[in-house]
Amino acid sequence: MIETRPAPERAYLIGVQLPGTTSKALAEQMRELAELTRTAGGEVAGSDVQRRDEVEPALFVGRGKVDEIRGHREDLRLDLVICNEDLSPRQQRNLEKELGLRVVDRTELILDIFAQHARTREGRLQVEAAQLRHLLPRLVGAYDYHRQMGGIGTRGGPGEAQIEVERRRIRRRMRDLEQELAQVRAQRVQQRAGRQRSDLPTVAIVGYTNAGKSTLINALTGAGVLAEDSLFATLDPTTRRLHLPGGRDVLLTDTVGFIQKLPTDLVAAFRATLEEVTYAGVVLHVVDAAAEAAQEQARTVDEILAELGAADKPRVVALNKVDLLGPVTLRRAMRAFSERYAAPVPISALRGSGLDALGDAIDAATGDRYVPLEVLIPYGREGMLQELRQYGGLESVEYRERGTYVRGRAPRELAHRFQPYQTD
């Protein structure tokens, strides 16, 4: 029996250009909104923007624009309207009543994508908590009817229809979720403490969504992380050991992708995941150098790192997807990003180019916690040699009569272990 997929929902996208927002910036936001819609499984049937001095408090856009959209409902066969901003419960209710269509705001759209992509128990709990936090103030009267219809903006979450129409049950579920997430956070703290006890430096990969972080961690470590050409393909952090060209190992952790106007509910729900950035020794910032809005995306990452208190951490910047750039465009990108960051490294995670140089840059960024050593490890104590190779780094090895002479480096906190073998 051939299984047929339901037709994608047809969405009409609306944006508002307010004072201080350039036409270019808004065009990029609308392009991103269209990509988010497609990632959620929808089809963009049309879009429009309206210039306003301020958002219309009752309808988000002016009544004339509402009438215009209503006129498109039949000829474009619209299923829903998606707004580029977060809507108040009042605006969402009024728009749905005026248009006779479901209306989804930017946060609901992103939450829907997260609901589809969460794979682990932690990820599903985080998404459900964010969905309920966003849903609770919108549970009023007839507004709830559309949530029984399914589709974009309604996936995931608690799973029982009754929970979405009863405030008391939702609050109870939110309390239960908070308790479960507290347990998850405690487990993550234990895992983080275990990694710190291993004395390996930690590197957190950050970047705008779809910058190629998962492809990069796969290329560097063979982690097998899901890598797709779509927004928020992976939500659940993955930690893998990376062997650097200099001989040392570090722990590399993938994190959820950043995006403009990252919903506050998501930041709160994914606090445990984002803490991986806060506690990492080095941040590896992956930039999609081929994106038209590469500079704006990098600025968004900078802003979120600042919010997380991680802006001043040692950072390595990888300009990814340079295989899609011509020589002139690449030189222009390198020049522009060199003005913003120290020594960005051009790479192609997909093609595997530039990874050795990236490894050297990571090595240098994590190297300030190491001290140089010259030791003579007696034969029969090869375990010490292996420890130095694993937690530090070897620059040269020479086999002598009384043992193995090694020049290298070790973490400061472990250097005392090699003191008995120091050479004069």
Task: Write a structural description.
The protein has 424 residues and is of the alpha/beta class. It folds into three domains: 10-104, GTPase HflX, N-terminal domain (Rossmann fold, 3-Layer(aba) Sandwich), CATH 3.40.50.11060; 199-366, P-loop containing nucleotide triphosphate hydrolases (Rossmann fold); 370-421, no CATH class. Helices cover 41% and strands 19% of the residues. It has a six-stranded mixed sheet with strand order 6-7-5-8-9-10, sandwiched between helices. It has a four-stranded parallel sheet with strand order 2-1-3-4, with helices on both faces. α1 (23-39) packs parallel to α4 (106-117) and α5 runs antiparallel to α6 (167-197). Residues 140-149 have low confidence and may be disordered.
SSE map:
Layout: E1 10-17, H1 23-39, E2 43-51, H2 63-75, E3 80-83, H3 89-99, E4 102-104, H4 106-117, H5 121-135, H6 167-197, E5 202-207, H7 213-221, E6 239-243, E7 249-254, H8 264-269, H9 271-279, E8 282-288, H10 294-307, E9 315-320, H11 327-340, E10 345-346, H12 355-366, E11 370-378, H13 382-391, E12 393-399, E13 403-411
Parallel strand pairs: 1-2, 1-3, 3-4, 5-7, 5-8, 8-9, 9-10
Antiparallel strand pairs: 6-7, 11-13, 12-13
Helix pairs in contact: 1-4, 4-5, 5-6
